[in-house]
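Ticket #310: bound-state structure for calcium ion.
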Amino acid sequence: TLPILLDVDTGVDDALALIFAITHPSLDVRAITCVAGNAPLAQVVENTLRILDAADAPPIPVAAGAVRPLLSPGRAASHVHGEDGLGGLVLPETSRVPESVSAVELMRRTLAESDEPLTLVALAPQTNLALLLRTHPEVVDKIERIVFMGGSASVGNATALAEFNVWHDPEAAAIVLGSGIPIFMYGLDVFNQVTVAQDAAASLATGGSPLGVVVGALLGNRVALSEDSSLVYTGLIGDAGALCALVEPESLRVERRPVRVELAGYGRGQTVVDRRRYSGEDVIYGGVGDWSVIEVALDVDAPRYAALFL
Ligand code: BDR
Ligand code: CA
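RESOLUTION: The complex was predicted; output attached.
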């Protein structure tokens, strides 16, 4: 099994990712940290705890982290995830409570106490990760790899150029990209492709299993995407795809590419992915602080990931 730390802003598709991570036998979730993003922090924490109950998860420690980005104002995505972050899905109250320590301390402690390096999976704005790197550089060598959902080599969603997680806290993403830790980017190029058909989601929701009902309802979250704001079924598994990437990397086309985060102007929050043919990346990019050569997922066998998720 692969031991992971999960950082989330639950979030309809973060909820799908949490359920996937808890139920997949080859993933071992050691701790979950929460950050403001799709919804305000307190709502993210509550949603996360309730989803753990729905997935019948073991007692995994959960901690609250940053209430807003490093420099940007906090801007929740209620137009996508609803005011409650779960698209209106009402879950029973939970007796789970968050840890009394911060997300940064929970990550530090979990890394420090682990016998083996851990994979850090970020499905949200990277504020907590940036704070960890700046506060506790001594645990960096316990991070095997950072896998993040965010960024794009093509279209944006928060703006025409920028993906939401990176756009929400561009400085944090720039700190993470500049950390020197091996990084894998699961961006919109693949995120937008993996969808579950409406009839499959509906049969989950009516199929009788309590967890299936929750997953079906989350997949059925309708998003105001069109210009007249009519509600559209997407069936996106979203953040859960970044966990599929851990389990089944061979279903992705991945390239090592130089990537930088734009911090100014209209492009603020854009990940510029240099897809030119080039030789000798060390000659061109060596020593230049603002470009980092990372792994970028550019294409996915989408039906395969949808099936894996189901
Ligand atoms: C990302 O932003 C959020 O809406 C989703 O949870 C995902 O992490 C997509 O841009
Ligand atoms: Ca998310």
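RESOLUTION NOTES: The pocket of beta-D-ribofuranose (ligand 1) is lined by residues 11, 13-14, 38, 77, 80, 123-124, 149, 157, 163-165, 238-239 (CB under 6 Å).
TICKET STATUS: resolved
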